[in-house]
Amino acid sequence: MKVTTGTTGAELFFERRDVVVARVDGELKDLDQPLPEGVEVEGVTIDSPDGLNVLRHSTAHVMAQAVQQLRPDAKLGIGPYITDGFYFDFDVAEPFTPEDLKTLEKMMLKIINQNQKFVRRVVSEDEAREAMKNEPYKLELLGKKNEAADAGEGVNVEVGAGDITIYDNVDRKSGDSVWCDLCRGPHLPNTKLISNAFALTRSSAAYWLGNQNNQQLQRIYGTAWPTKDALKAYQERIAEAERRDHRKLGAELDLFSFPDELGSGLPVFHPKGGIIRKAMEDYSRQRHVDAGYEFVYTPHITKGHLYEVSGHLDWYRDGMFPAMHIDAEHNEDGTVRKPGQDYYLKPMNCPMHNLIFRSRGRSYRELPLRLFEFGSVYRYEKSGVVHGLTRVRGMTQDDAHIYCTREQMKDELTTTLNFVLGLLKDYGLDDFYLELSTKNEDKFVGDDATWEEATRTLAEVAEASGLELVPDPGGAAFYGPKISVQAKDALGRTWQMSTIQLDFNLPERFELEFQAADGTRQRPVMIHRALFGSVERFMGVLTEHYAGAFPAWLAPVQVVGIPVAEAFNDYMFDVVDKLKAAGIRAEVDISSDRFPKKIRTASKDKIPFVLIAGGEDAEAGAVSFRFRDGSQDNGVPVAEAVQRIVDAVRNRTS
Question: Which CATH number goes with the domain that contains 304?
Answer without folding.
Answer: 3.30.930.10
